[in-house]
Amino acid sequence: MPNPNVRYKTRHFLEFTIDEVDVDVMAGFVIIHKGKEYDCSLQPESITEHLLINEVYIPLQSLTEWRRYYALMGRTEKVEMIDR
Questions:
Q1: How far is Cα 78 from Cα 29, in angstroms, rounded to an integer?
Q2: What are phi and psi for residue 24, nearest 5 degrees?
């Protein structure tokens, strides 16, 4: 199914609500900003910590990386939230 948003070329995107918390799961995360593609896929060297959920370790990137992604997406409210 084609991605309906031309700002992204993410291969897989799923949304869940777990214990009233919205969780997005992405694979092959790509942001299009000013005509340039930014590959934001999770790479082993970008993993800064793991979260244990139901005996499964979930790899996470840093808030610094996510601040950059939100800036590329034009999500200023998220950038400001991280900066606070």
A1: 18
A2: -105, 135
Which residues have C-beta within 8 Å of that of residue 83, sequence separation ≥ 6?
67
Total number of domains in the chain: 1
| pLDDT (tens digit per residue) in 45-66 | 999 999 998 899 989 999 999 9
The parent domain of residue 62 ranges over 12-83
pTM above 0.70, yes or no: yes
Q: What is the pLDDT confidence band of residue 10, given thresholds at 50, 70 and 90?
A: confident
Torsion of CA 35, 41, 46, 47, to 10 degrees: 150
Residue 1 within a domain: no
The DSSP result for 55-80, as a single string, is TEEEEE--HHHHHHHHHHHT-HHHHH
